[in-house]
Amino acid sequence: MIWDSVLCTCSRNTGDSGNDQFGCRPCECDFGGSLNNRCMMGNGQCDCRRHLIGRQCSEVQPGYFCAPLDYYKYEAEDANGRSPTDSALRGKVRPQAADDCIQHLSNQARRHRRHRRVSSSQQYHTALRRIRQLQQTPDVTTVNREHTPGMVVTWTGPGFARVKDGAGLVFSIDNIPHAMEYHIMLRYEPESPEDWEAVVSITSVNLPSSLRCGNLLPTEQLYTETLLHQNRYIQMSRPFCFEPNNRYVVAIRFQRHGVTHRHLTAFILIDSLVLIPKYTELPGFQGSELQAKQNKEDMVRYMCPGLLHDHSHAPPGGHVLQAHLQHLLHHPQRSSAALAERVKDEANSTKQALSASDKAIEKATAALKEAQSNLNNTQNATAEVDLQLLQLEGKQMDIMMRLQNLSAEAEALRNKTEMNRKMAEDALALANNATLRASSLEQSFNNTEERYKELLQKVESIGDSGSLDSIQQKVRTMKSDAENLLNKAKDGIKQLDNLSNTFKENEDRMQKQLEELEDLKQNATDVRDELRKKMQAFSVCQV
C-alpha cells in the first residue's frame, strides 16, 4: 500500500491481501494448526504445522485426518467379560436372589393361567426351567446394533456389551501418547428404569516412571460411581494419571444400585470406556496469559466438553478445537509407509539435533571446566592475597605494638634520666658542701694543732704540777676531740669521694642510656619507613 508517496507495510502479527480496502488485519492464526500467531505481510498466510493447510492453518491436508478428543476409547465388546465371583473385580460379591426369581417367574406364569389351564406343578417346573436357562446365560454377551439411515447414532463401534447384574469387564490400556491426567468416562444404556453403579479399579502393571505420574501414590485407585438410568454416560469423580510405555488394567463391576442381592434377569448395555485428556494441562491452556484464557473460553463457548459425551452434530468450531487439542498430543497420521518415512525424517533430525547438542554440551563442558579452573585459580590467588594481608596486618600490629612499647620505654628512660640528673645535681651540691666542710675542718684542725703547741709551751713555762695535770687533761680532751673531728673530716672526705664515684657512674650510665635511646629512635624510624613502603606496594596491588 502506498499512501502520500510513503510506502506503508503491515506491522507484525497482521497481514494484507493486497487489494483489501480495509488494509491490515490481524493474522488470527489457528491456535492448534499454526506454529505461532505470525503471518505473511503480503497475503496473511500463517505458518502452519505439518499436514495442515489454509490461510489460518485450520484445514487438514488431503490424505490425513485429525483424531477427536475421544480418540482413546476402548469398546466394551473388546473387553474381557468376568463373572461376579471373579477375583479381578473389586467390591463385595452380592448373593444371588434365587427365591425372588422363582417367585417372579411364578407370578408371570400365574398371570397366564387366566388364559390357559396350567397346574401349579407345571408352573413351578416352568419357573425352575426358566431359572436354569438364566443361570446358563453368559454373564457378558455382545449385542450388535445396525445403523439406521436418518437416525442419530448414540453408540460407537459395532454395538454394546450386555453385562449381567454383578458381573463386569476388564479393559487393557497400553497406547497412552502423553504423560498427564485423563478423565475417565463410561458410556452405557440401561435396559430398565432403575439406577446402576460401577465399582472401578485402575491398576498400573509397572511402577510409574515419568516426572508427571511418578510422584503420585498409590498406583491403584478405586471409584464407585452411580449410573443414572436417565443418562447415557458417567465421568469418574476424579482423573487418573496415565503415562506412555506402561500398561494399565481397568476392572469394572456393574451392579444395581441400592439393593442387596443380584438378579439373574437384570442386565445393562455398556458401550465404551473413554480417556479424555485434561486439556488444561496442555500447552496453550496453562498460566494466566491472555491467549490461555481465550483458549479456555473458546472451549466452553463451542461446548467442546459436551462433544465428548454427545455424538450429535457439533456447533461450528467445536470439532476444529478438538482437532487442535489432538495436535498437542500427537501429529495427524496417514498410511504406515508415510508414518515410517516421517518417523525416519524425525529420527534423522533428532540425531542431528542430538549431535549438535552433544557438541554444544562438549563445548559448554570445556568452557565450564576452564571457567572452573579460572575460578579455582582466582580463589587460590584471592586466598594467597588474603593470607598475605593477614600476615601484613599481623606484622603491622607487631610493629605498632613494638613502637608503642619503645615509646613507653623511651618515656620511662627519659623520666629516669631526668631523675638521675636531679640526683646528680643534688650529689654535686652535697659534695661541694662536704668539700667546704672538709676545708673548714682542716683549717680548724690546723688552728687547733697550733693552739695545742702553744698550750704545751705555756704549760712547760708555768711549772706547776697540779695545774699541769689539769691542763694536760684538758689538752688530752681537746686532742681527742680534735682527732675525732679529724676522723669525721676524713670520713666526710671518703664519703665525698664515694659520692663523686657514684655520680660518675650515674653519668656514664645515663650517657649509655641516651645512646640506646638514640638507637631505638633510629630503629623506630627505619621500621616506620619500611611499613610505609609495604603499604604503598599493597595499595598498588589492590588497584
UniProtKB/TrEMBL annotation:
Keywords: Basement membrane, Coiled coil, Disulfide bond, Extracellular matrix, Glycoprotein, Laminin EGF-like domain, Repeat, Secreted. Residues 354-537 form a coiled coil. Its main location: secreted. GO terms for cellular component: basement membrane. It is found in: Secreted, Extracellular space, Extracellular matrix, Basement membrane. InterPro entries: Laminin_IV_B, LE_dom. It comes from the Eukaryota. Residues 66-341 form the Laminin IV type B domain. This is Laminin subunit beta-4. It comes from Oryzias melastigma.
